[in-house]
Design brief:
The structure holds three protein chains of three kinds.
Chain A (H helix, E strand, L loop, with lengths): L1 H17 L4 H18 L7 H4 L2 H30 L8 E6 L5 H13 L3 E7 L2 E6 L7 H8 L1 H11 L1
Antiparallel strand pairs in A: 1-3, 2-3
Helix pairs in contact in A: 1-2, 4-7, 5-7
Chain B lengths: L1 H24 L3 H26 L3 H26 L5
Helix pairs in contact in B: 1-2, 2-3
Chain C lengths: L1 H25 L3 H27 L3 H31 L12 H15 L12
Helix pairs in contact in C: 1-2, 2-3
The chains are: A mainly alpha, B mainly alpha, C mainly alpha.
Chain lengths: 161, 88, 129
């Protein structure tokens, strides 16, 4: 079942890339998707039932807007720091405890943090995530965990768990 | 309309030269890698603008392939960095 | 009409690219350069691709530009943080005027563990899942 879902996903991606439905392109795509499924199918560790729940897609859609807004804010922030003649930066690496268990959720959270204002993920060690922060305004763990992770964690838990 | 696209292309190529400045000047090896990584993303923008200017769709295929190749190149270089140690 | 909106989006994208490259030239150390360059250049390229999509709608070019966006998201972010991790493990420390560094202790612990087992555990890139 899992392999079949992977095959369908790959085939959809192929159809989007080539963007035409003809016999030859369908045959080539089917062969490529089958070979890829045979080799890499065992790494596709997703419960198929989760892919079919509409609530997850709703939260993902909402998350997209929040993420875009944060991303835009991040860029204006970086533009301000770059154009300021004195370079107002105060960098440091901080450590935050993670509340998400699944691997894909953690990867998504790390990628989202990389795109939001002033933060970039450096490493994940067991239950802690290390973040390089361009302007360290506080050293209190409670405050900065909320400031960096808080806005995404609830949504990501609803989408991926 | 075409002149605007030409101006954008010249600007993007100037930005590539800024990255190249970082690659040549960069005091450490990691700075050079950052420059190369960013140049790979800029090239995708250049291919998108060429595609919209000429109306040829195959140019965007080059862009997609370029994203994947530059990603793999950067991962390999970063892995190499992580394995070795700085000799002081 | 569509072409005008697309042109505006493309010009915004080029502007953000310019900020990112300026940051790449001006900031003092590897991690800050990585910050400004990755964020700004990625969003700038997204804006350019969105502009292409708005110009052409759901044709072959538009759909290709649209599926480049998630591809670029994963490629750019994972590349950035593997580079940051690699640079830290290679031995480049933070800029002299930095505020805190809580990663140093962890890395020392990791290296001590690695010396005992002689390279058996060369931790893999965490975000490449």
């Amino acid at each position: 079942m899992r392999y079949f879902a992977f095959f369908i996903l790959l085939m959809g991606l192929w159809l989007l890339f080539t963007f035409r439905v003809e016999a030859d392109s369908l045959i080539v795509g089917g062969i490529c998707a089958a070979v890829t499924t045979a080799i890499f199918g065992k790494y596709f560790q997703v419960r198929v039932r989760c892919l079919l729940e509409p609530a997850r897609y709703f939260w993902a859609f909402l998350y997209l807007f929040i993420f875009s807004w944060e991303c835009l804010k991040a860029n204006l922030d970086v533009a301000y720091r770059v154009l300021h003649p004195k370079l107002p930066i105060n960098p440091g690496i901080v450590k935050i405890k993670l509340n998400i268990q699944s691997d894909i959720g953690r990867a998504m959270l790390a990628n989202s943090i990389t795109m939001t204002p002033g933060t970039i993920t450096v490493d994940i060690v067991e239950d802690h995530i290390f973040i390089h922060w361009i302007y360290v305004s506080t050293t209190d763990p409670e405050v900065y965990s909320k400031k960096i992770c808080g806005r995404f964690e609830t949504y990501i838990r609803r989408i991926f768990e | 309309m075409s002149t605007a696209y030409n101006i954008f292309l010249y600007l993007l190529i100037a930005m590539c030269f800024m990255c190249l400045y970082r690659v040549i000047k960069g005091p450490t090896i990691a700075d050079r890698m950052v420059g190369i990584d960013i140049m790979g993303i800029l090239v995708v923008g250049i291919t998108a603008i060429i595609a919209v200017k000429t109306g040829q769709m195959f140019v965007l295929d080059i862009g997609i392939a370029w994203i994947i190749l530059s990603f793999i190149a950067t991962l390999t270089l970063a892995k190499y960095l992580g394995r070795n140690k700085l000799n002081e | 009409m569509n072409e005008t909106i697309g042109l505006i989006l493309i010009s915004v994208g080029v502007l953000f690219d310019l900020f990112g490259c300026l940051g790449l030239v001006r900031f003092p150390d590897v991690y800050n350069r990585l910050q400004s360059a990755t964020k700004c250049v990625t969003l700038g390229t997204w804006c350019i691709l969105l502009g292409v999509f708005v110009c052409y709608g759901f044709t072959e070019i538009g759909v290709k530009a649209l599926i480049s966006i998630p591809l670029l998201f994963f490629a750019a972010t994972v590349a950035a943080h593997s580079l940051a991790r690699g640079a830290y493990h290679y031995g480049f420390r933070l800029w002299g005027k930095s505020a805190v560094d809580e990663y140093e202790k962890e890395v020392k612990q990791m290296e001590a563990g690695m010396d005992n087992t002689e390279g058996a555990a060369s931790g893999d890139a965490s975000g490449s899942a």
